[in-house]
Amino acid sequence: MTTELTTTTETTTTTPTPATPSKLRDERVRTAVHAGLDKKALGPIVLDTGALTSIADYFIILSGTSSRHVQSVSDEIEKKLREEGTRPRHIEGRGEGEWVLMDYGDFLVHIFTEENRRFYALERLWGDAPRINVE
């Protein structure tokens, strides 16, 4: 007598859904974007870079119309996040105001003059990262 043993395995495949405003996992990112917008920053973009790099989960990219405007936007973002108990690990480029990089660990804030934003084109460089709409 031959006994046949059969086993079945079920696999479930899930398709990742693109990040949406309701799926933003870090409210500090929303705070940073809104603080920039309060100072009239231009072209805010949030990239979900968590699956692409260990540098940060999110890149926030904003522009200012001048170096002074870039500095003002960075000051406002730092102020609003500090009010919520979040301090930057490091801030670079504030003195020149052409490209300010604010490192908050889980997310980075890049604030450029419009000319430097076009030149460095981080949106293109990180083009594989899903964009998140922050409202």
How would you briefly describe this protein structure?
By secondary structure, the chain is an alpha+beta fold. It has helices at 27-38, 67-83, 114-120, 122-125, and strands spanning 42-48, 58-64, 90-92, 99-103, 107-113, 131-132.
Structure overview:
The protein has a domain of 88 residues: Beta Polymerase, domain 2. By secondary structure, it is α+β, with helices and mostly antiparallel strands. The protein is globular. The chain has a six-stranded mixed β-sheet. It contains four helices and six strands; from the N terminus they run H-E-E-H-E-E-E-H-H-E.
Detail the topology: elements first, then pairings.
Layout: H1 27-38, E1 42-48, E2 58-64, H2 67-83, E3 90-92, E4 99-103, E5 107-113, H3 114-120, H4 122-125, E6 131-132
Parallel strand pairs: 2-5
Antiparallel strand pairs: 1-2, 1-6, 3-4, 4-5
Helix pairs in contact: 1-2
List its traits:
single chain, 135 residues, alpha+beta, Beta Polymerase, domain 2, 6-stranded mixed β-sheet, 4 helices, globular
Helicity level: 25-40%
The average pLDDT score comes to 85
The low-confidence runs, each spanning 5 or more residues with pLDDT under 50, are: 1-22
| Beta-strand proportion | 15-25%
Judged by helices, strands and strand pairing, the structural class is: alpha+beta
